[in-house]
Amino acid sequence: MENIYIEDIRYKKILKGGSIDIAQGEFVLICGRTGSGKTTLLKLLKEKAGTDAGYVMQNPDNQIVCDKVYTELEFAASAGNASRDYVRTRIAETAAYFGISGMLDKEVDKLSGGEKQILNIACAMAANPKILILDEACSMLDPIMSDRVADLLCNINREYGITVIMAEHRTDRVFANADKVVFINDGFVQSGPMRQMAHDMCRNPQMAGFLPCCASAVKSDEPVLTKAEAIRHLNGKTADICMPEIRTKDLPSEDVILKMKNVSFGYDRNKGLIIDDLNLEITGGSIVSLLGENGCGKSTLALIACGLLKPYSGKVKVYGKNRNIGMLFQDVTLHFTEDDYNGVHPYDLSGGEKQLAALDMVLKTDPEAVILDEPTKGLDYYEKEKISDRLVKLKENGHAILIITHDIEFAAGISDRMLLMSHGNIVCDKKPHEFCADNIFYTTTEMILLRMTGKI
Q1: What share of the chain is helix, strand, coil (3-state, %, to 5)?
Q2: Is 254 helix (H, G, I), strand (E, B) or coil?
Q3: At what angle do helices 84-98 and 69-77 cross, to 10 degrees?
Q4: Using an 8 Å Cβ cutoff, are 442 and 408 in contact?
Q5: Do the domain assignments include residue 266?
Q6: Going by DSSP bridges, is the β-strand pair 131-135/53-56 parallel, antiparallel, or unpaired?
């Protein structure tokens, strides 16, 4: 594979200049505001790389073409008239590498969004590419799986020499592993070695929000990019931990708006329950975040709560004047029924812009309860602040809000309660500080650093 070089990058009104040079075997991280042109740049790089590149889209549903996990992998591995034995071998080793051997017989439409994303990454690798291009590949993954995928991508790059190019908003797990960082600002592409770009970003308020959480959690003269670096600074007393601002205020509890009692559900009665005797109450004037591993039933719970799925047993009750629940779906394209949104076709919006537009549509109905499934997916730090502001106002107006998310920092900063779901039930229900202090993996960067330095 030759180096990828594009000079004077321009595309319509999205990309306005700059250049990029990617050497064989490099790990390249692309950052920038929502709608800045990251996906456009990735597509230009894919076009330049040709058949050498595997590509993972932002929306996993846009990439899947088969009904079973095995046949999806088979389709990906069969490129170039490969022999049957070769295809079977590629499926076996790829499934083992990505830990999805137990999913091979599953129907794709029964997978969670995160499981579909893992499948798409595995399919891209099954085609044996020289370059792997990923658009927000970790945005729909739970924290533990996100760590694993980040490690797998780094290993693919370091051990097998595959060039990895990825756009990502949540950079904690990949920034320090990048050889090169690319930042798109107002259409102009800036790139450089990772450490040099970290220094530039740290000193620019428009760029600082894209550094790893450690950089904002630890006050230091040098940008801190990993927890190991943070510990060295903190133990050497050359830095302090900066705790994030809590966005919500304690408000008097209102009446229960949403109540789920002894609810059970499964998509196939012969294959066990997805939701198992679950109980949940959400009051007005409160924000509740629901976390848990991919495929544990979070989105299913949301569909039951808003009446789109009927439980096998148990009761779901919605209280209030109009008993109206609004839901932001994980696939936000389901909200677009017209070809025009503020003068733009919805499919011409970036992933993050679609998310914000769909949320606007949900909130226009003024629902008493709002359920949001992955509302920060595809959004940068600054756009998340806009969503936070909107949700806090809804809370102050007495709405009940349930957020399904893998974004722990976002949840900890805005929630009154944080729940952890496992095997179809709620196993942890605590206030954010207690939730993050008691958990090892489902916690914030700041809490990990406090624990590692013996301050809690």
Answers
A1: 40, 25, 35
A2: coil
A3: 120
A4: yes
A5: yes
A6: parallel
Which pair of tokens denotes residue 56? 């993972």
Q: Identify whether the C-beta of residue 383 lies closer than 8 Å to the C-beta of residue 417.
A: no
Containing 69, the helix (H) or strand (E) segment is helix 69-77
Residue 224 and residue 295 in one domain: no
In a domain, 180, yes or no: yes
Measured CA distances, 61 to 108, 130, 253, 297, 342 (Å): 10, 24, 39, 18, 25
Q: What is the tens place of the pLDDT at every residue in 395-409?
A: 988 889 999 999 999
How many domains does the structure of the chain reveal? 2
Q: Which residues contact 376 (CB under 8 A, 6 or more apart)?
A: 355, 384, 387, 405, 407, 410
pTM over 0.85: no
- Dihedral angle, C-alpha 143, 145, 146, 147, nearest 10 °: 90
Q: Rounded to 5 degrees, what are φ and ψ at 16? A: -115, 0
Answer yes or no: do 208 and 327 share one domain: no
**Are the CB atoms for 332 and 355 separated by under 8 Å?**
yes
CB 258 within 8 A of CB 281: yes
Q: Quick one: three-class SS letters along 353-405?
A: HHHHHHHHHHHCCCCCEEEEECCCCCCCHHHHHHHHHHHHHHHHCCCEEEEEC
Whole-angstrom distance, CA of residue 78 vs CA of residue 91: 10
**Distance, CA of 57 to CA of 167 (rounded, Å):** 10
Report which of 44, 55, 77 is spatially closest to residue 131, judged by C-alpha positions. Answer: 55
364 shares its domain with 229: no
Task: Provide the residue range defining the domain that includes 74.
Answer: 4-234
Q: Are residues 150 and 212 in the same domain?
A: yes
The CA radius of gyration of the chain, in Å to the nearest whole number, is 22
Sheet holding 286-292, edge to edge: 325-328, 369-373, 400-404, 286-292, 417-422, 425-430
CATH number, residue 447: 3.40.50.300
- State the CB neighbour count (10 A cutoff) for residue 123: 25
**Average per-residue pLDDT for the chain:** 87
CA 29/CA 195 separation, integer angstroms: 12
Q: What is the pLDDT of residues 340-395, one digit of tens each?
A: 677 777 777 766 677 778 888 888 888 889 999 999 887 888 888 888 888 898 89
105, 198: one domain: yes
What DSSP designation does 294 have?
A: T
Residue 249 domain flag: no
